[in-house]
## 1
Amino acid sequence: MSVVLVAATASPVVREPRDDGFPLSTYPMFASKRPTQMTLDYALGVTATGERRYLTPRLVGSSEVLQAMQVIHRARATRSLPALCEAIAARVAGDDDYADVVAIRIVTGTHDAVEFLVRDVIGREVERARCEVPR
Amino acid sequence: MNRLGRWWFASAPVERLAAVRIFVGVFALAWVAGRLGELAAVARLGAPHFRPVGVVRVLDAPLSPALASGIAIATALLLAAFTCGWRYRVTAPLAAAGLLWTLTYRNAWGMVFHTENLLVLHVIALACAPAADAWSLDHPRARATPAAAGYGWVLKLLLAITAITYVLAGIAKLRIAGFDWLAGEQLRNQIAIDNLRKAVLGDMIAPLGTLFLDHPAGFTAFSIATIVLELAAPIVLLGGRIGRIWALSAWGFHAGVVLLMNIWFPYPLLGLAYLPLLPAERPLAWVARRWSAWRAGHPR
């Protein structure tokens, strides 16, 4: 039994390293070469005065950041961003922490991560969907 | 028996393996029970988001949310039986199968996480082993006739599984990025991008996530230390002082990941990944002695 479990756990080594799986993983996280510039889809809250509020991933549909990102990405791919926007708006309407949010924008943003984090430089954002928060 | 066999099957106290079963079982139970809401929310995402991996590849379409939640609840109950060692030969394999299914299903929605792999593999290994021969409902005291192969091999197997996961992570970095990964810039970029994602998706960025980003050269030491730590993981099998030093270093690595990326690997951070190295039976034996003393002082 030891041999079987050890061999199974080690078996991903013969796979292509990006061919990830669960629970037998190649553990490719943090391995890929990446530039600091990144384009990603995300949802923003907009207050009555036009300020932006970042929305916790739970409001998108998963408490995990990466899974929430995939939810938005896939909704964009399947042209269902308006429906996702409405679903997020409905959740925001029921969350007192976001009582000041009056609208939801789903955008594709391109940022330089170091500039964004260290110098608060917001990159280019393209709006993909917008909806009002039902109050 | 050859030397390798004698080393692999070297004896260990039955209570040590039982303690590992209890600690790992409690963690697995808390992990699943604490995520029932999350599992239910993910199960409602719908077919367009379903990307089956692992054993869940047997499905062409997602299960109904009610069924997915029902399996998760049943898994939690089975894990309670696993932890208590109740009818272990039946409940432990079922608990392991339930955990494998439930957590694989959670990973089948577009994003494969790496925080739960070791937990699943350890529960599977424990479920196949005589880990309830003491401190269990089946055997409250150690069995009069110990398992023929003893108990030490299970602890070694758990450590071997832990070590392999680290080695695979090191190999993946070198296969995907080559030795460029050691220069530090890629690690810096990964940390920056991960924190950017967190920032725009409304999660907390890491406490030290922005501190070193302007100084990519400083990440060279982090990168080299990471690769050395991962590829050297098999030394944990030597046990003793050197094994514990490696385990402490690995724990420090995970603490660093929290500080730089706010990514939590609770299983190793709580020490469970390295528990078979330690006299895990001692804290539970202390509790058992206190309980016995209290009972003796309070006869019914």
Note: The CA atoms of residues 166 and 230 of chain B lie 5 Å apart.
## 2
Amino acid sequence: MTEHSERAAEFVADQQRMHWHDQAVWFVRNKRDIARSFVPEWEELRSLASQIKAHTLSRLPDYLEEFERNATAAGARVHWARDAREHNHIVHGLLRERGVTRLVKSKSMLTEECHLNEHLEAHGVEVVDTDLGERIVQFRREPPSHIVMPAIHLKKEEIGELFHQKLGTPAGLSDPKQLTEAARGHMREKFLAAQAGLTGVNFAVASTGGVVVCTNEGNADLGTSLPPIHIACMGVEKMVPSPEALAVFLRLLARSATGQPITTYTSHFQGPRPGAEMHIVIVDNGRSRILAREEYRNSLKCIRCAACMNTCPVYRRSGGHSYGVTVAGPIGSVLAPHIDPKKHAGLPFASTLCGSCADVCPVRIDLHHQLLAWRGELAARGLVPLHKRVVSRVGAWILARTWAYRIFGKLLRVLAPRIPNPWTRQRELPPMPRESFRAQWRKRVRPR
Amino acid sequence: MSARDEILRALRAAAPAPAPLPDLARLEAVQYPDLRERFAKSVVEVGGRCVLVEGPLEDALRAIPEYAAARKVVSLVPGVGKANVDLACVSDPHDLRDVDFCVLPAELGVAENGACWIVQHGGPNRSGAFLTQHLAVVVRADALVHNLHEAYARVTIPCPGFAMWLSGPSKTADIEQALVIGAHGARSCTVLVTPS
Amino acid sequence: MDVALFVPCYIDQLYPRVGLATAELLERQGVRVHFPEAQTCCGQPMANSGFFDDARQLARKMLDVFSPYEQVVCPSGSCTSMVRNHYPELLPGDPRVAALGAKTRELCEFLHDVLQVRPRGRFDARVGLHQSCHALRELRTGSGSERLLPPYSKTRALLEGIEGLQLAELSRADECCGFGGTFAVSEEAVSCAMGRDRVADHERAGAEVITGADSSCLMHLDGLIRRDGKKLRVLHVAELLEEATR
């Protein structure tokens, strides 16, 4: 049993809810399929995106320096953070120096990864997550279960109950339109009262020094057009070389994520507004270590669209929270073991290696191969349970010797129905043949 | 060593093998037989409305119910009759909080996704586009392109400055995937395509 | 034409009829079928648990056994993929690996691409085709639902010529069954949920028979079908075609 398998079992046990979650997320996979069918050059776009990222990663320091030069020339201040601790320290420092106690924040997986909210709140800063889904999970004091649809695990009645408690909406109200309207009013006050706005970065463009932020709600734009301070946080891998390259990713991102041709707002921030400040925090937090590992390097191409989660039959039936890590699903299972191989050793095994993720990934990350590579690395590091190692070793010994295999095969067919077996908890064993194929082959009369 | 130097050094030491930038010029991206029709269809698909303007712009605007009913109107398009907010007097972006209707000019429209390229060099005015309850975007018929590759080949990104692709009204599907138009930003978006 | 039969260990022991049906089908096409008796297992279960050294041992044995032959045919997508796609990673320096990979084919691939047969026969039933993930996405026996390609399916093409056989329209054409090797036991809850959902899809589509190219998937689905008391017949595509073309 791993953390994932235990939590997944709980999730599955609520059959109705599990199926509801599975259908809800599968629906998004379907929408992606439909959107993709309007782009005849889709497979070529995926290849181009993958190659652009491979190129950019191969020259990342150069592109980062170019980006820094251009961003600085546009009036932004660029900061660098080695890890989560430094990132949080920098962001808090900027806020503290300016007396900011009210911050609005649009979606940023990086800041989740760094646990920024907890850090700021501990230092007396009110942090309001302004994406509706993120605000919902923030109210519930739980992490998002999906990187694009943070509250996909919740039913509208539950959200209605939450808003009744937090926003004073009428008890029993569960209509999404009315709930969203209530959130609109509440959030507007927060935007207007905010002293600083923090955003993530979907793409950082080296040749222009600009950052691109994609939202459907407009929350990143409200959060950055009102307060006089904009802080944009990005992982080093968010670089793209130019606007020409950016076009490729923008055509893939929303279609892969939600089935839309593009998000409502695709904002290009080139330096601060006149009279305002803009800070860009560039974060490593283990990415340079991943870059150094050839087997896993491709995972840095990720544009955080979550198509892999939507297609993953395991994610859909276990829910994002069963992964125990900021980013869940296939990409999460490939990124998490870098952070803590022991804690997350179960994640690469929370997969059947079906390969569907790799085929929907807009940047062609070979996720299923990376999951297998992790299994090998974890096994080599002794982080795979002992009984599995024993079974493998003994099994290999037997199978390496035809005579031993034949004896073992016969024993298996005789004993399997008679000994307790985890398989039989929910499944029948196949009827055991009296003779193996090879025994029957020997006896077979072959037609001329 | 500064964090910057350490990070750059670590990235250099990782030394992935050189990988060439692919030639994007060779890509044959989607083209549509009827550019205007496809653009209009895309705008509707993303939750907006698209109007082909035949007479005066003001008439087309007045036909939009939200414009007709609007009390406070901001316009960044010259000659919009009902605009009654003197942007020159606005120094605080918060002052635009009660704007009902905002008219924005777009330099370009993209048929594949209904997106309009809106450039803002100004200061406090930027907030108007997001605080407004309703939006109209004005784009010329000869400023439509088929896809985003053509679009980026034509636009200049203001540096410093701000520009965005705006594709329909603000929306969310965060509550059980029910699509709700008008999340935090504009509740409606009418794209007015004017003759060349 | 001479062909060496690569019969996966679990087919040898648990589904011998699949191996026999495979041999029958090939012989009916005039192929001379050999069964190298020294073969045991391709090493996939070890590799999938991350024990590459254990798998390597078995990979070398496979190379010893099959290298002398000109063609190798295997009634399993996942085992074929192990040889073709994963042996190069396990044994990068070994020159025999590429050669073996190039001549090892899954049964449907072999029938469709090499023998180029479109079987004619009779099988009166509504049949649900379960597209095993390794056959589909690693051997590319079909275009798959994820990619935007002109649709094709080698297995489907083999079934299309059979009179009386109606293919059931599934709502999810190629979702994984949930077997996944040790996953079936270590993530039992999700594995069985996935398998039951597949079965339910086939049932809703009116399938009377479920067929596929991998007995591992079928063993899992059949195990659930029989435990849940459902009335679906599960047949490997080799068995189905053999029965249909007798």
Note: Chain A has three domains: 3-10+300-380, 42-285, 402-443.
